Amino acid sequence: MAEIAVVAISVAKPGHEEQLRAALEGIVGPTRAEEGVLQYDLHRDLQEPRRFVFVERWTSQEALAAHAQSAHIQAYRAAVVDWVEHAEIRVVSKIA
């Protein structure tokens, strides 16, 4: 299967920006060590500092699925449930 990309956006509830940032930073290292990850970069929106954006590249849909089930992602999701106002994940493929 062809390489895929992901844009994952998390918006912190007001007052929880730094808690969410720390939690997001905490999953970067373990994720970069996963099989199938090509890129896993965390960004913060300059105009809306409550918005965090991951830009990701994966070797396959299967690698992304394994990532979603990993222990560190499951722990992250449980930890941030009260800190996230909105989350959106878009899986895309490069066309040009």
UniProtKB/TrEMBL annotation:
Domain ABM residue range list: 4-93
Keywords: Monooxygenase, Oxidoreductase
Molecular function GO terms recorded: monooxygenase activity
InterPro entries: ABM_dom, AI-2_Isomerase_LsrG, Dimeric_a/b-barrel
PROSITE patterns (UniProt xref): ABM
PANTHER family in the cross-refs: ABM DOMAIN-CONTAINING PROTEIN (PTHR33336:SF15), QUINOL MONOOXYGENASE YGIN-RELATED (PTHR33336)
The protein's name: Antibiotic biosynthesis monooxygenase
Species assigned in the record: Paraburkholderia sejongensis
